[in-house]
Structure formats: C-alpha cells, structure tokens
Amino acid sequence: MTFTRPPVLGAVDPTEKVGIYFDPIFAKAWLAEAGYSEGKSFPQLFLVHNSSELHSETAKAVKTMLKHYLNIDVEVRAFDLERYLKVLKGGPTAPHIFRMSWCAKQPDADFWLHEVFHPDKGINWIGWNNHEFAKLVDKARQISNPVERKELYRRAEKILTEKEAAIVPLYFKNTPFMVKSWVKGWYHKEFGGQHIRNWSLEN
User: Fold this and answer.
1) Domain assignment of residue 4, yes or no
2) In CA terms, which of 8, 35, 90, 123 is 20 to 30 Å from 200?
3) Maximal C-alpha separation, the chain
4) Where is each Solute-binding protein family domain found (predicted)?
5) Residue 27 in domain
6) pLDDT digits (tens, 9 = 90+) for 83-128
7) Cα(183)–Cα(56) distance, rounded to whole angstroms?
C-alpha cells in the first residue's frame, strides 16, 4: 500500500503491489533475520495517538495483530491533541510509532509526497531524510509529462513504503455515495465534489 491515495494524478495503481503488504510469514522471517525469532527479546514499543474512538480502535487492532502474529508487545498511549502535538516534537518522550493522517489540497501526488515527506520543504513529521526520495519528488514537480511523473512518484513511493518503510499506510478514508439509476451524468471523482450542473434526470 502506498501513501498517495489512488486514483489521483501520479498515484501508484494498487495492482502494482508497491509497499509492504500484510504477510505474517515474511514478517516472521524478517523478524528472525533481525535477531528476534518469535519476538523474543524484542524491545518495548510505544504507540501513541490523539484521543478519539476511531484512533483508539485502530491502535488496539495494531497492538492485537503484532502480538498475535509476531509476539511483539506494544504499549498504547492516548493524549489530547495539544499534548499529542508536543509529544511528536521529539525529545525523551518521542514515541516509536504514532498515527497521523493527511488530506491534500489538490489531486496530485506532489501534495502527498513532496508536501509531506520532503526532508527540507515538507512537513516531515517523522524527521525522515532520504536524498534519493527528495531528488525524485523535486524532479517530478518540474516536468509536465504525466507518464514520466507517475514513474518518478512510483519510485519515490517504493522508497517510502517499501525499501525504507518509513511509514506504514493503513487505510484511505472513503465517502460512500448512493446514486439512483435515473440520475445521469454522475461519475466518481478522485478528489472534491460533484458538479450538479452536469447531472440530468431520466424518467
């Protein structure tokens, strides 16, 4: 799974399987290769989130799955938003894992990858610094060819979510629609709302 939400411009098609997908067998093998077979002697992990029912349930799910599949214990902590933002700034209270969400301003991968994870120009909550990633997203915003841009973003996503696994994308929020069969002109948009002026009704 990637960070940029398909099907916006530059997003990787999910069929390309970029990113690390759920696979307990491979995860156990990687864990053993790192010296923690069956999760033995794995350091304690802290997972923090800002208080909300959704975030709490998501954190519990992550905790449960890590314990069930890898025998890794995670301590979950919740904070009010003000405290949470202070915790994320680092120092001795910096968490090992934390949740964050993102909603881009435009339907273009630049507003996900460059704006969030560029080491010098992005928000970069995780303090990540990968020069190859930075060069790819910098180059992508300088060209207009959509095919070339998509390839650059695919390579950047591969670094972010697979090669270095700097983040773990969990899900994309969706907005459900119920459209009557006699409403014509409605179509799925990857970003933003519909233009009612394009609709028509059939008897």
Assistant:
1) no
2) 8
3) 68
4) 6-121
5) yes
6) 998 888 766 667 889 999 998 888 899 999 999 999 999 999 888 9
7) 39
> What's the total number of domains in the chain?
1
* Cβ-contact 171, 3 below 8 angstroms: no
Give the domain extent around 138: 14-201
Q: Report the candidate in 84, 95, 89, 117 with the shortest Cα–Cα distance to residue 3.
A: 117
Quickly list H helices, 37-173: 53-70, 81-87, 110-117, 131-140, 146-158
Q: Are the C-beta atoms of 76 and 59 separated by less than 8 Å?
A: yes
DSSP-assigned beta bridge partners for residue 77: 48
Within-domain flag for 2: no
**DSSP-based three-state secondary structure for 183:** strand
Query: What is the distance between the alpha carbons of residues 202 and 169, in angstroms, rounded to a whole number?
Result: 41
Lookup: tokens for 23: 């696979």
Structure pTM? Answer: 0.85
Q: What is the pLDDT of residues 42-78, one digit of tens each?
A: 998 999 999 999 999 999 999 999 999 999 999 999 9
Q: With CA atoms as reference, report the closest residue to 96 among 130, 119, 63.
A: 63
| CATH number, position 176 | 3.10.105.10
